[in-house]
Amino acid sequence: MTAPNHNWRKFKNAFMQTLAFVCAILVVVPLVLVFYHLIKEGFTSINWAFFTQLQKPVGESGGGMANAIVGTFVLLAQAALIGVPVGVLGGVFLSEYGGTKLNWWIRFAADILNGVPSITWGIVVWALLVVPLTAPFRGTVKSVDAAEHLVTVQSPAGDTQEFKADANTRLQLNGKGRLDSLNQGTDVMIWYHQGNDNTLLADSISPSGLWGIFIATIIKWHNSVSGFSALAGGVVLGLMMIPLVMRTTEEVLQLVPGGYREAALALGIAKWKTIVQIVIRTALKGIVTGVMLALARVAGETAPLLFTALGNQNWTHSLTEPIAAMPLQIFAYAISPYDDWHRQAWAGALVLLLLVLSINITVRFLTRDRFQPKI
Amino acid sequence: MPDSPNQMPNAAPDARSANSPALTVRHLSVFFGKSAAVKNVSLDITRHAVTAIIGPSGCGKSTFLRALNRMHELNPEARMEGEIHLFGDDIYSRTVESVTVRRRVGMVFQKSNPFPTMSIVENVTVGLRLNGVRERKILAERTEQSLRMAALWDEVKDRLNAPAISLSGGQQQRLCIARALAVQPEVLLMDEPASALDPLATAKIEDLIVSLKKDYTIVIVTHNMQQAARASDFTAFFYLGELVEFGPTAKIFTSPAQKRTEDYVTGRFG
Question: B266 Cβ partners below 8 Å, 6+ apart?
């Protein structure tokens, strides 16, 4: 029997410990890098104008993203209007009502929804709220005048409508690009806007069907014709909040001891009053925390807004118009070729990070005595 | 007894006469799923008296107590058979809601559970406020009256707006009793109200129980044999879901008719 090799064993031990330490440090490195870069690149561009002015045209320096900052808050407010009531009441149902089997399925669905990629949410809301609101004219082609670029279409109700297609539109026709490729009798959808002389100018004409909608809308997106709206942006963020808020609400309500429910019910207080006045009130801090974390999470979402809120270089005066948002603005600036805009993108990213960070810090303060009252 | 705003229909005319029982329980069985926790129990709860329910753990005494104000219905598996009349009113009648029953039959639990988000005074008045009583005068009157009855007034009258959870354990339990009294129930159920308290606080609760029977009918579940002997007028001994023996406390503790009762009260089993 040979003596155990202590040195080899000690070496293995030290090696593993060092490896684990290096990995732990690697976790922190990106955070430091993010902060370092954002502050280095963005801090100098943060000034009063950044918060109060719109973007300046290319070539002029200065300007800011006031509209994007306001837009982000408008979107978050709408998201909260949708996500908080539905999420909280859903969480109340899971915690306080419902059969266990039904609850299992709802919980399962919510957990799946929490894992759905944000771009998927975007495309769903785009199909539900953006595409229908572009309100195409649906009908059957009656006649085509290729020389004058005129298409006459009859709606199912029997109205006939004449559309003038411009050079752009022709490229979008049925994927073939020529008006005369449209046959008489083809079912089509036409997205249009009204010209100055009240002619109906077709932005795109496509055969009916989902694929047709897709092509048409991608083109419309580039033409930046309505359909995209602040409303759609708010809805997509709100929908993303629902499962987040629902699960955290359920969890904090479950932390409320059953004794409080029993005590209230034994006083002859109706169940819904017990839930609202006793259970929710006891768990209010936790619910608020969940809501704020959900808001922080959706505040930085970019992908779903590309399809819905779209972005806007100016102020938005109605929820039915496209609206600017900080992540969208950062994206737009970052992929631009201008140094001025790059600096604005850095500044925007820094402000967005500070916003999310301040929400998280507020939550830390709120939850400091989360497990009081002593139970 | 204060007149109740929640009178139930079908009150038998003689049920409110002075000597009739507060609660008449007939052939009560309570099931959780398929197993019976209480089996065919019949007894009368005398008004203005303290009735103690004793028995070993799992004998169905808590379930019996909870059936008296329909609290067992919180368990969706629970099902009952038999009849319970409160001063002549069938509390399981189809036209009677559990909320109405619970306003007439209050309850105090083993673990003191004052609402942590509320002050002392808010805890006392919560049952009134959430049932629509708004007048400050009434709320103030009931607060003092209930806290006095619960022997807590002198200790808290100078800090009524302090958080309820700033009180000691025994004070919290008396606050819970005050909270239950504030809605002016006719019967007060107590589920081991002193088992989590120290001997001094326990003694206070026992004194309180004795003093409350002047105005209330009290049913108390207890594990503590001395407590039943000291504080109650009648004692029911439950074993395995059945009512083994029921009678005046003195008789149950000195000359029980059943061998099992004698074994239990003398500490030979259970």
Answer: none
Find the chain A residues whose C-beta atoms sit closer than 8 A to any C-beta of B: 257, 259-270, 273, 277-278, 281-282, 284, 372-375
ipTM of this complex:
0.89
Tell me the fold of B20-113+187-265. Rossmann fold (3.40.50)
Q: Which residues are paired to A306 by β-bridges?
A: none
Would you list the domain boundaries of chain A? Answer: 66-130+229-369, 135-208+215-223
* Structural domain boundaries in chain B: 20-113+187-265
Q: What percent of chain B has pLDDT over 90?
A: 79
- Cross-chain residue pair A278–B115, CB shorter than 8 Å: yes
- Nearest alpha-carbon partner for B172 in B115, B222, B112, B232: B112
pLDDT in tens, B213-231: 999 999 999 988 989 999 9
Look up the pTM and report it: 0.78
| Residue B1 predicted with pLDDT over 60 | no
Cis before residue B163, ω within 30 degrees of 0? no
CATH topology of domain A135-208+215-223: OB fold (Dihydrolipoamide Acetyltransferase, E2P) (2.40.50)
Q: What phi and psi values does residue B91 have, to the nearest 5 degrees?
A: -75, -10
Looking at beta carbons, which residues of chain B come within 8 Å of A375? Answer: 116
> Would you state the CATH architecture of domain A66-130+229-369?
Orthogonal Bundle (1.10)
Q: What's the rounded mean pLDDT across residues B201-219?
A: 92
Q: Which residue bears the tokens 């954002």?
A: A38
pLDDT at site A6: 85
Q: Residue B2's pLDDT band (boundaries 50, 70, 90)?
A: very low
Q: Contact at 8 Å (CB) between A245 and A88?
A: yes
Instruction: Answer whether A262 sits within 8 Å of B71, measured CB to CB.
Output: yes
